[in-house]
């Protein structure tokens, strides 16, 4: 099980870390471990936990102060977790990640191996974004998305997203009548739903929109997700019908396919003609040089790139077989007309995942 808990469930703005709330969650997870289940905890709260010790009255707006608060708060947060879990006979290990650790393929494998080994040794991994060094360019943006990626990395049976909201509603229950959505079977079930973007107590960075995005990522990769409030944790982990269930959809992709779709950061774009778009999209064929009209970006062979049609729509994402400087000489040429060393596919079908979104910019 991967369980994610937000800052709003562990901290308060004036008092920082709420030890009683944290211990209540640990009691639930400790009971789950005693029942023989493996658990990975993705916990926010480092910056919020550092506010009170630094006499800060609100979440810092500048990056340096936020990183300083995280440096102080992360130590306090994990030590409090370690003490609370020790009462249940559970050893914890800290895993701090930045988006760069999962966008780089080798780092992604290392994160997977570390979490797998910790679990095999009977350790409960506590994962958090490494806010002490993360910049805007390499941030996950919110730990909900990090939790969705960790759920796949850890080959989880389920993901539970806990916060101060008890599920997904068809409107904002704070401003008017709204009904809890019991089950989401796909994005179409939420087409008419307006999602909030702010936490209730001012110490968190996420909102329901980030939880829904994360839940759709994980459930689309074959991992069922429950979005519930932290007081409902025991019921959610016991399989009771609380919160909102995002049903698993489709087969679980390989680690490589999942990384390409959700974790890789494209280093450039390869531009396709209409024929290549049809071949890639309809037949899931490899991309050949004959269908390439241009490229942008300074990428190297084996870097992830986006494949973009003439209309600006991103068709697929894949690992390119050539450096950016090699492609201009190959544009539009048939494979048989190329030198032997350039007759390989520009992007092989096994190194490609289909996507569909408009590129803005």
Pick out its properties.
361 residues, 11 helices, Carbamate kinase, alpha/beta, single chain, eight-stranded mixed beta sheet, Archaeosine Trna-guanine Transglycosylase, Chain: A, domain 4, kinase, cytoplasm, nucleotide-binding, five-stranded mixed beta sheet, RNA binding, elongated
How do the strands and helices of this protein lay out in sequence?
Blueprint (H helix, E strand, L loop, with lengths): L1 E4 L1 H4 E2 L3 E2 L1 H16 L5 E4 L2 H4 L13 H24 L5 E6 L1 H5 L1 H16 L3 E6 L13 H11 L5 E5 L19 E2 L23 H13 L4 E5 L3 H5 L6 E3 L8 H9 L4 E5 L1 H10 L8 E6 L6 E5 L4 E7 L32 E7 L3
Parallel strand pairs: 1-4, 1-7, 4-6, 5-6, 7-9, 8-10, 11-13
Antiparallel strand pairs: 2-3, 9-10, 11-12, 13-14, 14-15
Helix pairs in contact: 2-4, 7-8
Would you give an account of this structure?
It is a single chain. Helix content is 32%, strand content 19%. It is of the alpha/beta class. It has two domains: 257 residues, Acetylglutamate kinase-like (Carbamate kinase, 3-Layer(aba) Sandwich), CATH 3.40.1160.10; 93 residues, PUA domain (Archaeosine Trna-guanine Transglycosylase, Chain: A, domain 4). Strands 5-6-4-1-7-9-10-8 form an eight-stranded mixed beta sheet, with helices on both faces. It has a five-stranded mixed beta sheet with strand order 12-11-13-14-15. It has a two-stranded antiparallel sheet with strand order 2-3. A hairpin with a 3-residue loop joins β2 and β3. The longest helix has 24 residues.
């Amino acid at each position: 099980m991967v369980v994610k808990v937000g800052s709003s469930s562990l901290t308060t703005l004036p008092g920082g870390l709420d030890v009683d709330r944290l211990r209540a969650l640990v009691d639930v997870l400790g009971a789950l471990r005693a029942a023989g289940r493996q658990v990975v905890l993705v916990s926010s709260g480092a910056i919020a936990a550092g506010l009170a010790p630094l006499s800060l009255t609100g979440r810092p707006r500048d990056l340096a102060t936020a990183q300083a608060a995280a440096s102080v708060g992360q130590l306090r947060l994990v030590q409090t977790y370690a003490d609370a879990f020790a009462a249940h006979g559970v050893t914890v290990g800290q895993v701090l990640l930045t988006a760069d650790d999962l966008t780089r393929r080798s780092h992604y494998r290392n994160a997977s191996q570390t979490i797998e080994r910790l679990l095999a040794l009977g350790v409960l991994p506590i994962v958090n974004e490494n806010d002490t060094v993360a910049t805007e360019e390499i941030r996950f943006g919110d730990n909900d998305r990090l939790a969705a990626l960790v759920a796949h990395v850890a080959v989880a049976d389920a993901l539970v997203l806990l916060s101060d909201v008890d599920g997904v509603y068809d409107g904002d229950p704070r401003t008017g009548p709204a009904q809890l959505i019991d089950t989401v079977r796909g994005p179409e079930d939420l087409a008419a739903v307006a999602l909030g973007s702010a936490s209730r107590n001012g110490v968190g960075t996420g909102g329901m929109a980030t939880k829904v995005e994360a839940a759709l990522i994980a459930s689309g990769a074959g991992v069922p997700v429950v979005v519930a409030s932290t007081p409902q944790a025991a019921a959610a982990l016991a399989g009771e019908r609380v919160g909102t269930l995002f049903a698993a959809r489709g087969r679980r992709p390989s680690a490589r396919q999942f990384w390409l779709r959700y974790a890789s950061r494209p280093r450039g774009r390869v531009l396709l003609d209409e024929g290549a778009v049809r071949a890639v999209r309809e037949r899931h064929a490899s991309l050949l040089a004959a269908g390439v009209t241009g490229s942008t970006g300074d990428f190297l062979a084996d870097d992830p790139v986006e494949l973009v049609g003439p209309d600006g729509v991103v068709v697929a994402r894949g690992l390119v077989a050539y450096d950016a400087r090699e492609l201009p000489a190959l544009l539009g040429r048939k494979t048989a007309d190329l030198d032997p060393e350039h007759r390989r596919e520009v992007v092989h079908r096994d190194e490609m995942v289909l996507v569909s979104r408009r590129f803005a910019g």
